[in-house]
Amino acid sequence: MSVGRLVMLDLKVGVRGYVYPIYLLVALAYGLMVKAFPESYHSVVIPLFIFFEPGLVGFMFVGTSIFAEKKDGTIGALSVTPIEWRSYIFAKTLLMLVVSLIAATLIMLIGTGSLEGLSYVLIGTFLVSIVYTLLGIAISSKYYDLDDYFVAILGVMVLSLLPYAHYHGYLTNKIWKVLYAVPSYPGLYFFKAAFEEISTDILMRSGIGLIIWSVVAYYFARIRFYKYAVEGLR
């Protein structure tokens, strides 16, 4: 089965199970929440909400999707059917990417009433969504219970939000420079570029950093998904 057909199948299942409609409703809620803030705060809250949507919410949603497909035997069937399990990973990532781009656009349009700077936001969303979707696949593959996965979600959430605290001057010790290696940090520069001047050099380095993270996350997802989800090892 091709990646395109897998995407359409996953979309039908996700819509039937209200996964993707809920995902977009969350984006709508974020956009409405932004309107409650004065315009001077948009450069702070919008990058945070946009990251939550393609990043952390996507990370959680792809994990719950994999849990559901483990229980109904969809993933287990990959080991005995002609479906290429790598195509499954690509299909999941592609669908979450498209939904994330729509969600980011909704947040910008509803929250600001404008699409100015949207190109930066979409580039950042594109890269961040790939990284966190692949990480979600990689990490959730080992778990069979949402309660266990919740611990991983909290860990990823805390680590991913620390760069925002560092960027805004709350973590000043030099040791916190290690946070530049967290994928949410380069994503933050793209989201901030819609509201303030960010040099081309920084954006280029941020883009390269996220591409490297994408490669690492894919490698991580490929190994763990096959080992724990397809083969069913624990």
TrEMBL record:
The record ties this protein, via Pfam families, to: FLQE3_permease
The chain's coiled-coil residues are: none
Q: Which residues cross the membrane?
A: 20-38, 44-68, 89-111, 117-137, 149-167, 202-221
Question: Sorted alphabetically, which keywords does the UniProt record give?
Answer: Membrane, Transmembrane, Transmembrane helix
Q: Which domain of life is it from?
A: Archaea
State the name under which the record lists this protein: ABC transporter permease
According to its UniProt entry, this protein's organism is: Thermococcus argininiproducens
